């Protein structure tokens, strides 16, 4: 995979990881309730679940492209609609949502379990990955290239939420984020809508 294409992959994976939702709420909750290490545990285990979905998606996309290009295109457009819906939802969220403080007593074991379950229990991740990874997967793609896609998705997801856990473990950061949550949601919404349009336009090159 050319480096320029990998940069595009990394950018869209980062956009997916940064979008507000249950994953952010999970890391926020465990970091506030158990501290930095517990929050990082939730983040890394969530990344493991994301990696499983990414692997299934990459393997399935290659076969689907080869066997039914029309069905593949329809699924890709459905994924683009989902990205657009996420963008509109983020724009309408205002300052509410996952940035609200909600700590609880927790542990590393519970954080690990919920990290995996939140990822695997969210079937919308499959749609999300189809919309994103369809831009990079081809029928003749090598195993190494597919592995690179999966590892990139895992590392970026885990890295982002580890950074969130580290940042939120400092008491001054969360109020700062809460105060600016409406701007974070607006920026995320615009970027998700732009990404949806890019998916409809066709694969990256």
TrEMBL record:
GO terms for molecular function: amino acid transmembrane transporter activity. The keyword Membrane applies. Keywords: Cell membrane, Membrane, Transmembrane, Transmembrane helix. It is a multi-pass membrane protein. The chain crosses the membrane at residues 41-64, 71-88, 116-136, 143-163, 183-201. Signal peptide: none annotated. GO terms for cellular component: plasma membrane. It is found in: Cell membrane. It comes from the Bacteria. PANTHER family: AMINO ACID EFFLUX PERMEASE RHTB FAMILY (PTHR30086:SF16), ARGININE EXPORTER PROTEIN ARGO (PTHR30086). This is Threonine/homoserine/homoserine lactone efflux protein. It comes from Vreelandella arcis. The lineage of its organism: Bacteria, Pseudomonadati, Pseudomonadota, Gammaproteobacteria, Oceanospirillales.
């Amino acid at each position: 995979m050319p480096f320029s294409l990998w940069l595009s992959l990394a950018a869209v994976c980062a956009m997916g990881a940064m979008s507000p939702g249950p994953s952010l709420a999970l890391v926020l909750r465990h970091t506030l309730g158990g501290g930095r290490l517990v929050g990082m545990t939730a983040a890394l285990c969530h990344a493991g679940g994301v990696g499983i979905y990414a692997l299934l998606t990459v393997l399935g996309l290659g076969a689907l492209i080869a066997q039914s290009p029309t069905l593949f295109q329809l699924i890709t457009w459905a994924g683009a609609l989902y990205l657009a819906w996420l963008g509109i939802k983020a724009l309408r969220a205002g300052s509410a949502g996952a940035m609200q403080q909600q700590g609880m007593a927790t542990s590393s074991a519970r954080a690990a379990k919920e990290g995996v379950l939140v990822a695997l229990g969210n079937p919308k991740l499959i749609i999300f990955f189809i919309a994103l990874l369809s831009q990079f997967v081809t029928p003749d793609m090598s195993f190494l290239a597919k592995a690179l896609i999966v590892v990139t998705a895992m590392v970026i997801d885990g890295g982002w939420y580890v950074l969130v856990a580290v940042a939120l473990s400092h008491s001054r950061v969360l109020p700062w984020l809460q105060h600016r949550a409406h701007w974070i949601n607006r920026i995320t919404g615009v970027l998700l809508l732009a990404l949806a349009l890019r998916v409809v336009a066709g694969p990256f090159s």
